[in-house]
């Protein structure tokens, strides 16, 4: 069965994260942008992470400038905004394309494995969320308007208390 474990992503500090390191953990993947009106969801995402990280949840955030040019920040400014101003502690990846011919293969996989009406559809805006189970398979895709607070039940259904958080070298 296909899963996300064949992909690697680049973290904001340049470190490569092979997603196979997340085996056995549910993952919430979200494309985000600092200047988007949905960026108010960042604190709710951080609350989810703080609540469920010890039970295995990982959140991977991908800044993206494809929608309304809402992610103008680069490099250290990008890191400072998310780590310093907003204070998110979940893994932050480098700026990533989620649509088009140069889209990251992870997002092509997520779009292709979305069930139902959104299957294979392009991501339409910032803060689209993808929930992946502990076997690395797509479980659900959520629209940008879906508030992170509404994901508690779905996340709790995927958690196992034996999971331990992943320790990244440089965050």
From TrEMBL:
Molecular function GO terms recorded: peroxidase activity
Tree of life domain: Bacteria
Keywords associated with the record: Oxidoreductase, Peroxidase
InterPro entries: Glutathione_peroxidase, GPX_CS, Thioredoxin-like_sf
CDD domains: GSH_Peroxidase
UniProt-listed Pfam families: GSHPx (PF00255)
Similarity comment: Belongs to the glutathione peroxidase family.
PANTHER family: GLUTATHIONE PEROXIDASE
Protein name, per record: Glutathione peroxidase
Organism from which the protein derives: Pseudoalteromonas fenneropenaei
